[in-house]
Amino acid sequence: MTELEGYPDSPAKSRDLARFQEKLLKVSKEIYKGLTPWQKTLVARHPARPFCLDYVRVLLHDFVEWRGDRAFADDPSIVAGFGFFGDRPVAVVGHQKGRDTKEKIRRNFGMPRPEGYRKALRVMKLAEKFRRPVLSFIDTPGAYPGLDSEERGVSEAIARNLYEMSRLAVPIVATVTGEGGSGGALGIGIADVVLMLEHSVYSVISPEGCAAILWKDQSRAKEAAEAMKVTAADCKALGVIDSVIPEPPGGAHADPFVAIEAVGREIAAHLGRLSALPVEKLLDGRYEKFRRMGVWDGAAAAR
Amino acid sequence: MWFRNKTPRAIRNPKTSASLGEGLFLKCEGCRETLYVKELERNLRVCPKCEFHFRLPADDRLRLLFDGEKYQTLFGDIRSGDPLKFRDTKKYRDRLKEYEVRTGRPDAVVAARGTVEGTPAVVTVLDYAFMGGSMGSAVGEVLTRSAELALAERIPLVIVTASGGARMQEGILSLMQMGKVSAAIARLGKQGLPYVAILTDPTTGGVTASFAMQGDVTLAEPKALVGFAGPRVIEQTIRQTLPEGFQRSEFLVDHGFVDLVVQRSEMKKTLGTILKLLHP
């Protein structure tokens, strides 16, 4: 097609180009319809996929990013701030990865240290104080497993967020846009509504990590992704998320604006409904949502 | 060869089994002294020479903490389903059955109600002998019910942790148990009821990153490994060996994440005092 574009314009050229384009669309549509869990994991990690700040740029205006956890540092692998979503002021928290090497390193590949979670909590508490709903965008391989991260209590930071988010008295809508990596994802993932993009994944451990533990062989990640049921459709079937947002043909990175707008529409619909609920009802609903999760026998013993 | 298999089973791996093994003697992991198993058991599995704390089975823990070693166990019929039809080298379902035969309980948790130094409490203990104390749907459900029962009866909740974290074999549902249990503990807190976390060796992963770190007061046994990522994962990440004592109870006290390191023999008394200080 690139070669064809180099030729002088003619009706035959534009006809052929249109035909090829249509064919390309059809093929990528078909390919993306049949992605395996492991292929979806790779798409979810695609560096050209929209990241949190891309959603912010398209869906919000007058966004002000707030920095720092007021205790130790600012962690660029989580962004947080307030902005207008349509005419509604909202708070945003989200993992942020980088596209080029320099940015990737600055953002620590989207792997937050405790400061990131504490900053997110600080901004969510502000949202509660000023009665603004929270939009959370999840896209992380996991919390950073480093010495400093442990020293400063990354598990305490995540644990506190789970605790506080379960009672935060404003609506929370979380969207898994790429990788939902374990506790590092859940640390900003307790919400009234949890959405997932079609080719995003959400899992308890990375497929590589799972394969390394179960089969002592990282290269069997494919099987692990399969076995752990990491896809959006699986998560929906397991009752862990509320809905799956379709991606444009070729995935969100093929047409970021279409993907971002689709996410925006879905968030807007839920936000309208949630904002109308009295706080006690909202919180009871959030409690029951997580309360139901899990599959166990012995159901006869009533709660 | 003569030097192979020189050490009896019990000496090779006393820490991972619920029982201390069939041998009469074993070697202390703390001081390398040879210990008489009977004596070690009498001493709550704490080395009489160096005070190294061997892992304590869940039932022994309940007997240790409740007055008169008396308590009523709860929610004992809850067992994990197999939502993913998971299979690695073995079927998950078969694995669960094997552990049930080995430990005599359907999953990695036991909840009980009784009194601790006179204060009524729900005490829920994770059982490391059952799939490394990992948390799937059943563990999450029992912990949540424990918190809900404590709330309904307006009595304190105590959780004793020993776990490798969330259970891979139940995938994302295991991760969600972190949220479910946390929400139940948050409700308890909102109503002014105490929750005390007791961390024992080892406590890592999703268990640390949820209820283990949500205690109003957090106690730990000496030298217990407590962390988010396991030491090997961290070493692979930073490509350095970790400092001595990293992620041990004492390290967590120094860094402000644990209140008190308590000897096993003192745990009941200390817990009793704390419960009285907080409740009613």
How are the strands of the largest sheet of chain B arranged?
Answer: 3-5-6-7-8-9-10
Biggest beta-sheet profile of chain A: 8 strands, mixed
What is the mean pLDDT of chain A? 95
Number of strands of chain B: 10
Radius of gyration of chain B: 19 Å
Find the structural class of chain A using helix and strand composition.
alpha/beta
Number of domains of chain A: 1
Q: What is the beta-strand fraction of chain B?
A: 15-25%
* CATH level 1 name of chain A: Alpha Beta
Q: Which CATH architecture of chain A is right?
A: Alpha-Beta Complex
Count structural domains of chain B.
2
Biggest interface in this structure?
Answer: A-B, 56 and 67 residues
Query: Could you state the order of secondary-structure elements of chain A as H and E?
Result: HHHHEEEHHEHHEHEEHHHEHHE
How much helix, percentage-wise, in residues of chain B?
Answer: 25-40%
Q: Strand-and-helix sequence of chain B, N→C?
A: HEEHHEEHEEHEHEHEHHEH
CATH superfamily of the largest domain in chain B: 2-enoyl-CoA Hydratase, Chain A, domain 1
Rg of chain A, please?
21 Å
Could you give a short account of the major beta sheet of chain B? 7 strands, mixed
State the separation between the terminal residues of chain A, measured CA to CA. 63 Å
Number of helices of chain A: 14
Q: Can you tell me the CATH superfamily of chain A?
A: 2-enoyl-CoA Hydratase, Chain A, domain 1
